[in-house]
Design a protein that fits this description.
This protein has 265 residues and is α/β, with parallel strands linked by helices. It contains eleven helices and ten strands. The strands form two sheets. The chain has a six-stranded mixed beta sheet, with helices on both faces. It has a four-stranded parallel beta sheet with strand order 6-5-7-8. A hairpin with a 2-residue loop joins β9 and β10.
Length: 265
């Protein structure tokens, strides 16, 4: 059982990290298109072309199901990809529903942070229209946060100053829910926690996507009895280049370690 997980950059490692916990039996191929990140500042047509190339690469590697661990890619390309490829393609979207449901208890607001493409996209608008009947959701685009993540700059004063500037128009005490609408943003949970109230709940779509992936491969017969109890492997590719040197793997391990710390917040 071979699963492809794609993202524009290292943000998708947060989805891979959760998928390996949910379904450790699978062999994973992780593809980060680091040569073209960030996607959130490109046109939808540019994004679709880049994602199509990456998915084709993963299909050629023998993947039997693919996760688009990128809200921007899901918004711009998933319908096209599902028409073109004859295998399960699972997307991710901001976890607006559980966040809105929780505000019925707190009486406060929900902030969704995302890339500009996701923020302006019809997919997010439809999700908000469906669940936000009390109009408690605000959407804030944070394009520079993806660049910070790609530079391994997660908790510097530059990051904090940038977030303070972008959040300046909002009273952060009004929010009980922060929806992480970009997988890159999972690296910054500690920085968000410093700015919002102590009782803030941060919500991402990683667990939901991982559960959806497991249900899909079981339903499609991709996951079989022979896979049970197996310990899977992971291959990492950065824009078609396999990561396998000691330095590259050490860096990836460091990112997984940070994601595990952020998962505990």
């Amino acid at each position: 059982m071979k699963i492809g997980i794609f993202d524009s950059g290292i943000g998708g490692l947060s989805v891979l990290h959760q998928a390996m916990i949910t379904m450790p039996e699978a062999d994973y191929i992780f593809y980060a298109d680091v040569d073209n990140v960030p996607y959130g500042e490109k046109t939808r047509e540019e994004v679709r072309k880049l994602v199509d190339h990456a998915v084709g690469f993963l299909v050629d590697k023998g993947c039997q199901a693919i996760v688009l661990a990128c809200n921007t890619a899901t918004s711009a390309a998933i319908s096209y990809l599902r028409e073109k490829y004859k295998l399960p393609i699972i997307g991710i979207e901001p976890a607006v529903k559980p966040a809105v449901e929780h505000t019925s208890e707190t009486g406060r607001r929900v902030m969704v942070v995302s890339t500009p493409v996701t923020a302006k996209g019809e997919k997010l608008k439809r999700v908000i229209d469906k669940y936000d009947d009390k109009h408690v959701v605000d959407v804030v685009a944070l394009p520079k946060l993806v660049r910070f993540a790609q530079d391994d700059d997660f908790d510097s004063s530059d990051v904090t100053d940038y977030l303070k500037c972008e959040f300046a128009p909002y009273n952060l005490n009004d929010y009980s829910e922060l929806v992480l609408g970009c997988t890159h943003f999972n690296y910054f949970k500690d920085s968000f926690a410093k700015l919002f109230p102590d009782d803030l709940e941060m919500v991402d779509g990683n667990t939901g996507v991982s559960n959806n992936l497991k249900n899909t491969v079981m339903k499609k017969g991709i996951f079989t009895e022979k896979d049970k109890g197996k310990k899977g492997s992971v291959e990492y590719y950065y824009s078609d280049r396999k990561m396998e040197s000691e330095a590259e793997m050490k860096h990836i391990k460091k990112l997984h370690e940070r994601l595990e710390r952020m998962r505990q917040i």
